[in-house]
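Q: I'm a student working through a structural biology exercise. My instructor gave each of us a protein and asked us to get a predicted structure, then write a short paragraph describing it. Mine is Replication-relaxation. I'm not confident about reading structure output yet, so if you can add a plain explanation after the tokens, that would really help. Here is the sequence I was given:
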Amino acid sequence: MTRSDLVGLQDHLTDSDLQLLRDADKYRLLTTSQIQRLYFDHARPTPVAAARACNRTLARLRRLHILKALERRIGGVRAGSAGFVWYVGPAGDRLLRLLEPAAGRGRRNYREPSRYFVDHTLAIAELAVQTIEAARSSDVEIFDLQTEPDSWQQSLSPRGTVQWLKPDLRLVTANGDYEYHWFLEIDLATEHAPVVLRQCLAYQSFRATGRYQATHDTFPVVVWVVPDEHRRQQLRGWIDADGRLDPRLFTVITANDFLDLIRSGGHDTFTNPGGGQKGGTTS
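A: Happy to help. First, here is the predicted structure for Replication-relaxation. I'll explain a few features afterward.
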């Protein structure tokens, strides 16, 4: 596509279309349901009207190659259009390069991703969508919501080399007079203890640098979001039993408890003994 083709294509898109494209790029993958909740549920009088508007928009953006859908659907073929998983299409990618030339976008891979990548990426997006919905309901305020790679934190190792901490999500929310910082790790019960503990140690090492605290005067609560209670107890046990770790830094919850945690700002129901202070940790 030439530059004039892209300019012409942009003229056929609404501001909402362009924002949807940017969100598809930000979250990498989104289900039809997630897109409907982000863009249509609050703007239509009924769920049926929202679903119809969403499906019409996605069909139009698909015809324009702004968005594409994975071959594999959530719930299989019987799920119909509701089962589609959407990502930035070739025309959408070129349009983003035109609109955001300073972003330094890499070449996009259009091969079908692994099942784990899809499940993990959609789980991250789901927490973001839930947070946005909570903000619309005035349950919380969102000051910042960063996905990878914007969520990554840079620091120097003791040897002076650059190292990166890579949270799945970074959130800054507010409730009343309090501001809360969160690093979120989404666990699908696929990783063994050494992998989980290595990531916990990376968070603890980053806290020790003081880099985040120097900018924000606090350190985020590190939240592991897991599928079920059995996995929650397993991760909690691994963290508490590791003598290298400060267990107060880490909160482990099930996905079903995520919204309650965000709304409460780390109320005692969810925090670990001695940890999860309002606004994060200060040490």
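A: Here are two points you could use in your paragraph. The CA atoms of residues 144 and 172 lie 5 Å apart. The two ends are 53 Å apart (CA to CA). It's a good idea to check both against the output above yourself.
Q: Great, thank you!
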